[in-house]
Amino acid sequence: MKKIAILGSTGSIGTQTLDIIEENPDRYQAAVLTCGNNIELLGKQIEKHRPSLAVVMNESDAASMRKKYPHTEVLFGMEGLMTAAAETDCDIVLNSLMGMLGLAPTYYAIKAGKDIALANKETLVAGGELIMDAVDDQKVRLLPVDSEHSAIFQALQGNEQKDINRIILTASGGPFRGYTIDQLEHVTSSQALKHPNWKMGAKITIDSATMMNKGLEVIEARWLFNIPPDTIEVTVHPQSIIHSMVEYVDHSIIAQLGVPDMRIPISYALSYPKRLDNPYESVDFTKTGTLTFETPDYNTFECLTLAYEAVREGGSYPVVLNAANEVLVQQFLEDRISFLDIQNTIKKVIEKHEPEYHLNLETILEIDRNVRGDLTL
User: Fold this and answer.
1) E strand or H helix at 319, and its extent?
2) With contact defined as beta carbons under 8 Å apart, do 81 and 7 qualify?
3) In this predicted model, what pLDDT tens digit does every residue of 211-249 receive, in sequence order?
4) pTM value?
5) For residues 6 and 93, what is the distance between their CA atoms, to the nearest angstrom?
């Protein structure tokens, strides 16, 4: 029985992880659940899964939940989150937290010798060097949950990451694929939240619309697979059937294909190196029809270009890119700025930044706070 700590159990990845656990009660136990403010859903999850520990954001919520669920220890805040990640007897920590909140718990879970199933891009975007050094030191597994990185991970099995010519990250193109700059001037948050293929949280859906999501994935892949950023290529694949590919030096390409269902990469991360016999839908190529591929429009969707520039420069540039993007996406969701303000403002913030290198956790978090503070004045 594998005990799992789910950081962010009420979000999209967290709830789908619980679906997998329910389908495999003889294999997995949801031993730790955490959430921010979705107390009602967390309560239902506690009733169903009876975890030994739950963590919420606010002390008052923790107090009320302790009375309601006496069989579960309930903690709160960042301290509680750290306990959930690093101080339980769980076998694997699935991090599906949103944004930079996921970095410190991942780091301390690794330092505690925990295997990680990672669905939090920001952990490697902002702390790639720090995190991968810790993974090497502690000899733990860092297993990707993002569909694209899971695809690459699967395509690399048996090859020990040798003889790679390039990695091809596929992108759906989001809801505004084919739009011009003029057309993007007036798009709304409700339009941006209508992703054509995937069911995801609001922040990642906006990132998909700006193509920042793919930029963050480039940075994440650079660290996960220890390859130079210029060997990572983005290709727009609107059908989202091929989730990513690896080309080897002999120009053979190995791809991972599947329907757009996040439960498949989640289940692989939980079951690795084995695979689960799951009930999910298979690809029917007679119905799928033609698979198409396009070059991204780097001039219109500048977030992708900015991400490449940040990872090439390294150091603190990706930290700044990520922090600015998180703040600006939230402002866009609140209808305080326009869609194009996201990439235009990120560009200005990066241009003003004085970089630092070989960052520790405290420096990363300080740079992140400073960027956020400047943008929220």
Assistant:
1) helix 317-333
2) yes
3) 999 999 999 999 999 999 999 999 999 999 999 999 999
4) 0.94
5) 6
